[in-house]
Write a structure and sequence with these properties.
This protein folds into 2 domains: 2-100 and 257-265, Diaminopimelate Epimerase, Chain A, domain 1 (Roll); 104-250, Diaminopimelate Epimerase, Chain A, domain 1 (Roll). 16% of the residues lie in helices and 48% in strands. The protein has 4 helices and 20 strands. The strands form 2 sheets. Strands 6, 7, 8, 9, 10, 11, 12, 13, 14, 15, 16, 17, 18 and 19 form a 14-stranded mixed beta sheet that branches. A 6-stranded mixed beta sheet has the order 5-4-3-2-1-20, with helices on both faces. It is globular. The mean pLDDT is 90.
Length: 268
Amino acid sequence: MKLYKALSAGTAVLIHPGPAPGGQRAAEVLDPLRGIGADVLACDDGEVRAFTRHGEVTPPAAALRAVAARRRADAGAQSWTLLTREGSREVRREGDEYLLTYPFSLPAGEEAASDCQITFAGLSDPRPALRVRAGERTVAVAALSTAEELGHLNLLAPPEVSAGDDLVAGAVVLGQRSVALTDGAGRVVAREDVGAIQVRGHAAGRGEVFSGDALAVAGAVAARYWGGAEAAREWVAVFGGGTTRVRLGGRAQAWAEAEIFAEITWRP
């Protein structure tokens, strides 16, 4: 079985340029003892399908970026329409990063600073949270005071949420600063505020989630609404395993790198 191993925003992806092998075989190859070891197996035979050790899943952003990176190595294109069972996704390469675009909204409306509460193991009190619809996922994001407080979260235990959501996150706004934008000659043509947030997430039935576009977009949207009119439109979401850059407009644009670093032949 031919495989490529890639890393995107802290997520390890195995890419198989062929038909899906089935859930049991996928679990074997993803297992670090019986197989190769990775977070996701992405199978690409014209249609992209993705598997974790728990079964088939909607292809996550890391898998789509890794498939695009492998296709680029084969054909050198800069944009791709990837077909999945849920529909098609557009991926575009910009510099060393791969861009995906998402609709986003606030289920409670744009005036709400919070619309639910999250109780995290490791913290004594429930925290107010804002629900954000990011793509097809709904994420409840709680604002925490410090990176130390974020580090105290015990995400081995499922957080308790007062509303049903796909993902739960704790986020710390690290700050924002003005950066210079330059033209091809190195001249400063504008300045723009860029913010940074640190995020940890939990998915029901899976445990802690170490990266993901839904978490990054939801964290950026929440930080912007908490910050008010002066808040940045561009944010860097910092995870335990990597970073994702998000720009907010009519839709959210999310960039992250994807690097293929091994070609493997696996014989079970």
